[in-house]
Specification:
membrane, 251 residues, transmembrane helix, mainly alpha
Length: 251
């Protein structure tokens, strides 16, 4: 399993796709900072402290960047029917699934580090740290970021599940996006017009938990709840993916 993870990382590290995708997003964040710098707005209100505060309201964005990573790691292989070659070397199906999820997590983490480093690094150079910058601000943001990571990992597990059951890469990415964009809204409407019991479902959705982490006031119960929900989603969809792959005829 470890050798397969290393092989998958090597394969993706040596592709233009991964680095092109990562640095394209990183370059976009740099462009945003440059545009803010040359505008009148940056002279009065923008600094590293403000960028950190703005970032707390953008914790949902990584959820929609995940499909491209999963497509590189899992969907492309599923589409090209090359999984059988890997399993023929003795790798169990459960380890195959775990490896795919782990590799996607590692690649997503690397991409996130590159993007955030360029975003905050360029922000510091262009605007300075700002008068409101403090250790408590950084700690608060890091708490949100770490717990959000557990929810993003659960999104990777869901995305991997969809990538393995749907061969068409465009379709799987579209369905994934629809789930996160519309499902919460549908459940919210049902809780308002059909039954308030739907609110229980709404409260445990990944998107709902991420939105709670973006709230101005952050409490320990909120952090614990979000962390547990992220872990549960990851376990459930990892197991579901294993069961699907175990019973699937891989050609």
């Amino acid at each position: 399993m470890l050798n397969y993870i290393k092989a998958e990382l090597y394969r993706n590290f040596n592709r233009v796709y991964f680095w092109g995708y990562t640095f394209s997003i990183a370059a976009f964040t740099l462009l945003i900072n440059i545009l803010l710098k040359i505008s009148n707005v940056s002279e009065t209100v923008i600094s590293l402290a403000e960028l950190i505060e703005i970032s707390t309201h953008m914790l949902t964005l990584p959820v929609f960047l995940i499909p491209a990573i999963v497509e590189m790691v899992t969907a492309e292989e599923n589409k090209n029917l090359t999984s059988k070659n890997i399993l023929s070397f003795g790798l169990s199906r459960n380890k195959f699934v775990l490896s795919k999820i782990i590799v996607s997590i590692i690649l997503s983490t690397i991409a996130a580090v590159v993007i955030l480093t360029l975003f905050f690094g360029s922000g510091t150079l262009l605007f300075g740290i700002g008068k409101s910058f403090s250790t408590s601000l950084v700690i608060n943001f890091v708490k949100r970021l770490l717990i959000s990571t557990l929810l993003w990992i659960s999104s990777i597990a869901i995305c991997t599940f969809l990538a393995l059951i749907i061969k068409n890469t465009t379709t799987f990415a579209f369905i994934y996006a629809i789930i996160f964009v519309t499902f919460s809204k549908i459940i919210k409407l049902l809780s308002s017009f059909v039954s308030d019991k739907f609110q229980y479902i709404y409260d445990i959705l990944i998107s709902t938990q991420i939105n709670k982490l973006s709230a101005p006031e952050l409490t320990n119960p909120t952090l614990i709840s979000a962390a547990l929900i992220g872990i549960v989603y990851t376990i459930v969809f990892t197991v579901l993916t294993m069961l699907y792959v175990k019973n699937k005829e891989i050609k």
